[in-house]
Amino acid sequence: MPQMAPISWLTLFTLFSLIFILFNIMNYYNYSPTPPSYSLESKITPSPLNWKW
């Protein structure tokens, strides 16, 4: 089985590294969070604390 030359390993490493970096950059700038929707029905009502000692 023939072996690959070291320059081929170097080009493969740089190719996959560049693809990985570009993929991460694209995902970082494509992220668009949705703002939370506030509704009046979902208000948190505090319950009274009845401590029974």
From TrEMBL:
Alphabetized UniProt keyword annotations = CF(0), Hydrogen ion transport, Ion transport, Membrane, Mitochondrion, Transmembrane, Transmembrane helix, Transport
A GO cellular component annotation in the UniProt record: proton-transporting ATP synthase complex
List membrane-spanning regions. Answer: 7-29
Q: InterPro entries per the record? A: ATP8_metazoa
Q: What does the UniProt entry say about where the protein is found?
A: Mitochondrion membrane
Q: Which GO terms describe its biological process?
A: proton motive force-driven ATP synthesis
Q: State a single Gene Ontology molecular function.
A: proton transmembrane transporter activity
Q: Name one Pfam family in it.
A: ATP-synt_8
**What membrane topology does the UniProt entry give?**
Single-pass membrane protein
Task: Tell me which family the UniProt entry assigns to this protein.
Answer: Belongs to the ATPase protein 8 family.
Q: How does it assemble?
A: F-type ATPases have 2 components, CF(1) - the catalytic core - and CF(0) - the membrane proton channel.
Q: What is this protein called?
A: ATP synthase complex subunit 8
Q: Which species is this record about? A: Bittacus strigosus
Q: Give me the gene this protein comes from.
A: ATP8
